[in-house]
Structures are given as C-alpha cells and as structure tokens.
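Exercise 7b. Backbone tokens:
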C-alpha cells in the first residue's frame, strides 16, 4: 500500500485512522485499555535501520526504501488514557497524519493494543472476583517470552499485586513475588526430605517465606512447614487438589499449630470463575498463570484500525457485519450523581453534545507533531492502576457479573456528516 500510494501521489493525503472494537469478546461486559505507554515508547524509536532496509529491498522500489529510511512519525495521536474502560465502538485511539505515516504504524499499534488490552481485561475480571484479595501473575512459562513481560505489566495495571517475571520488574517496575517449586522439595530426598527442604528455604529466605506444602501429603506438609519456620511462618501455598476443601483444612491445622497469622496462597489453573468459587474459602491470595496470559478465553481484544477521514472528509466501510462510522470522533461518559456510569456517548470530534447528568470527556491528546505529550513510565503505570480501580468502582453492579450478558452500559453514537463510503 505504501509503495502504491507513493507512486500515485496519495501517500501525503491527510488521514485519520481509528482503533476500536466492533464488539466486546463473547460474554464480556467491559474492557480495559492497555498498551498505550508501550505503544508511545515504541513510537519514539520506530524507524528502519540498514538491516531492515536491506531486507525490504527484496520487494520494494527505491522511492519506497528512501521514504522508509527517513521515516519518523510526525503526526498526532488522541485516545483513551491507559487503564480506562472501553466498550463496543469506543474510539480507543485515533491517529492523524499522512496516509503513509498512518499505514506504516498499523501492525505495531494493533499488536500491542490487542495483546495488552486482552490481558488487562481478563485481569480486571479476576481482580473483581478476588474481592480485594491479592493476586500474583505467574504465567511466564505459558506464553511467548516477550509476551510474558507485557502480560505481567498489563496484569499489574489491572490490579494484580505483582509478578514472578523479573524482566517486568526491571523494565516496568512491577513488584516481584513468588514461591519455590515442587522441584526444590523433591531435590531433598530421604524420609525427612520435605522438612529438610523447608528448613533450607527458611534459612535462606527467612520465616516470612511461602512454603509449598502439597508435594506429598498436605497435612504432613503443613506440619513440616510450621516445624521448619515456627508459628511466624509467612505463608503456605497449595497448588493442586480441591482447593476450597484443602484451604479450610489447612486453615484449621495452622490455627491449631499456633500459626494463626500464616497466610494461605492457592494456585493451579485458576481463572476468574475458579477465583470466584473460592470466595468463601479462607484463601489470602491467588497465583494465576495460564488463563491470565492467554486472555482467559479472549486472547485478543478484537481491535481494528480503520480509515475514517481523508483530507477532512469522512469515509466509512459498508461491508456486511464490518461497517465503520466515518469521521474523527471523541467520546464522553455520563454518570449519575453517585458516580455510577450510565452511558458512553461517541460524537464528532469538537462537537460535544448536551447530556443529562455529569459527564467526563474520555479522549485526550497523546502525541502532537510526533512528540509524546503525556506522562509515561512508572508514574503513568501507577495512574493507570488507579484509573482501572476507579473505573471498576464506577460500573453498575450488574456490570461486574461474570455471567454472560449485555455490556455494562450502552454506547450511543451521534453521527456526523456521512461522507463517501467504501
């Protein structure tokens, strides 16, 4: 497309592209925008070096290679702040620049937002299901090595307490948490192997450590854990079996052994439904892996990137089941006086409607003239965490239900000038 547009002179036409989801993933009532900060970081350094140009020379002409050799994004980007909730049709991101600049960014942008948003949206459901109990992201061994780092950040953004992924800590400052594996217990052979393993771990990590007690028999494991660390043991972890039943048994045993402050961590193929099923059990925190890093049934957010305006004139797609609304858009969210949100309104950019009730504009400037104009890095991640928590509190109570149903709030589109269609 770039080569053809450069050849026929359309590459420089001013365009607006929009990122949105035609629908939420099946059964979801809301989504959480994530990936904004990672996209902005990537945009700052997005260019084509000699190695890339040499590869592209296999099928691109000299003029296109020359364009890419000098590529730097100089346009504008608007969008929802990271951590904001979104719904079907929400204009999550809008890119305004020449056609050439916009089209080069498509895969970079969609790959980041579709992945990170899917993880954050799943994580937010798990946070709600956990009902204020901490969650640890433990899915690095269940996904691509680079996706694991991004997933840990997205989970933390959505409210997880931390991750077992050290690279996510180094790159993004996500707190690191974790426990030992069964292999460490199995390493210590002999009749008292488990007790020896626990004593070794306590000697190295202190009594605040978490001991994995289900390698053999859970009851014996708990007894060995308290013998090794004393009643001040930080926590025990259960990774298999009937977790609700075992949690009650372990809590009773710990209390009888005087370890009344020792916490119980559970893990083992948990998703939001499994977490919700443990609400009545004496569980203090959860370790979540596979379901989280694969989006818990929705591995991509379903975002698309569509051309909506050319030289100030709206354009839109009319393909069956894949229509798009033309023109640059912004959005606001209407709430009750109590703060509960009731409607999202999408309107032509610069023409906010009159609404009935308090409202908040969602669309903000992210990039101007190629320069990022919002806070990025650790401060941005902290703000996004707060934004997710605030957004979840603002949902109507039925919007937090895990059961399949309608989106938490309706979305209303105020049409602008129709413009030509494609």
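Sequence design result:
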């Amino acid at each position: 497309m770039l080569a053809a547009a450069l050849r026929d002179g359309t590459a420089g036409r001013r365009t607006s592209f929009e990122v949105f989801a035609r629908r939420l993933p099946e059964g979801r009532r809301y989504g959480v925008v994530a990936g904004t900060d990672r996209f902005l970081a990537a945009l700052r350094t997005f260019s084509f070096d000699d190695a890339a140009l040499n590869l592209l020379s296999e099928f691109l002409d000299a003029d296109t290679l020359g364009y890419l050799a000098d590529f730097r994004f100089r346009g504008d980007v608007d969008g929802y702040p990271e951590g904001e909730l979104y719904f079907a049709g929400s204009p999550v991101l809008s890119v305004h620049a020449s056609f050439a600049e916009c089209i080069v960014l498509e895969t970079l942008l969609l790959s980041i937002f579709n992945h990170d948003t899917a993880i954050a949206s799943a994580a937010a459901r798990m946070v709600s299901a956990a009902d204020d109990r901490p969650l640890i992201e433990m899915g690095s061994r269940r996904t691509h090595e680079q996706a694991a780092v991004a997933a840990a950040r997205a989970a933390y953004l959505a409210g997880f307490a931390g991750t077992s992924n050290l690279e996510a800590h180094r790159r993004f400052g996500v707190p690191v948490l974790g426990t030992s594996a069964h292999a460490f217990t199995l390493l210590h052979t002999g009749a008292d192997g488990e007790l020896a393993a626990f004593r070794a771990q306590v000697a190295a990590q202190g009594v605040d450590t978490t001991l994995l007690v289900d390698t053999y028999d859970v009851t014996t494991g708990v007894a060995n854990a308290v013998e090794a660390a004393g009643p001040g043991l930080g926590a025990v972890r259960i990774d298999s079996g009937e977790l609700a039943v075992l949690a009650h048994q372990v809590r009773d045993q710990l209390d009888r052994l005087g370890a009344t402050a020792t916490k119980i961590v559970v893990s083992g193929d948990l998703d939001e439904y499994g977490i919700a099923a443990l609400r009545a059990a004496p569980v203090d925190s959860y370790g979540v892996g596979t379901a989280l890093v694969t989006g818990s049934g929705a591995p991509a957010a379903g975002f698309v990137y569509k051309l909506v305006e050319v030289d100030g004139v709206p354009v839109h797609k009319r393909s069956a089941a894949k229509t798009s609304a033309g023109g640059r858009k912004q959005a606001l969210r209407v709430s009750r006086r109590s703060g509960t949100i009731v409607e999202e309104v999408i309107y032509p950019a610069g023409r906010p409607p009159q609404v009935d009730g308090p409202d908040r504009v969602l669309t903000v400037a992210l990039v101007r003239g190629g320069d990022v104009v919002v806070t990025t890095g650790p401060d941005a991640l902290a703000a996004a965490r707060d934004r997710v928590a605030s957004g979840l509190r603002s949902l109507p109570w039925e919007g937090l239900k895990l059961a399949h149903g309608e989106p938490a709030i309706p979305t209303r589109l105020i049409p602008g000038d129709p413009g030509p269609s494609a």
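Instructor comment: The radius of gyration is 25 Å. The CA atoms of residues 323 and 358 lie 31 Å apart.
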